[in-house]
Amino acid sequence: MKMLIKKISIAILSSIMVVCAAFSTLANTQVQAHSDKMLNQSYDYHGQQVLLDLDVGSAEVFATDEQDIRIEVRVSHSQSSWFSLWTTADLDDIDLEVKQTSNYIKLKLSDQDDVRQQWKIYLPRQAAIDLNVGVGKIEVNNMESDVNIDLGVGHAQVNYGILYGSVALESGVGEVNMAHLGRLVTVEQNFVRQAYYHKEGAGFGQLSVNVGVGQIDVEHF
Are strands 147-160 and 206-220 parallel, antiparallel or unpaired? Predict the structure, then answer.
């Protein structure tokens, strides 16, 4: 009798766990499907440095031959847990908050609490960029001026074809992969830290990537 009661209790508990898991998945899926917000904007470019301030999410930067900046941002509720169904973030109130001066253009959202961001940024290839990201993934393609990435936790990837005057890559806890013309080069390793530094007298500009915890992949083609 005791064995039967034990089996019934385990079955009931398992059923409850399955239902909770299913509810969590459904809730997050419904929130994602109905609450995503798309932001699109274009700005004139006059040689300024482009800055991005991003708490949690991803950003892809693409070089273009145009002379304007185009931005596409998908904003959704954070899904760090199934309790995000009751998040206080109101996506209707979130918009782009862009500050422009003669020296820089700073891109960010008006409110970054409890939201996840997916940025696609199309820039003139000669624009210098500075990306400050808390947690997420960064990808920069074919830019031809200074690139500075400061990422707390996540993955940073840079692909470039010019000859930089200096390259500095460092992951405090993680992995650094540097490829030159299809071949991996040696990086410094010290316990959990990895780094790569190189100076080129004939090059120009600088590439700097610093990740607190995570991976850096860089390819010079």
Answer: parallel
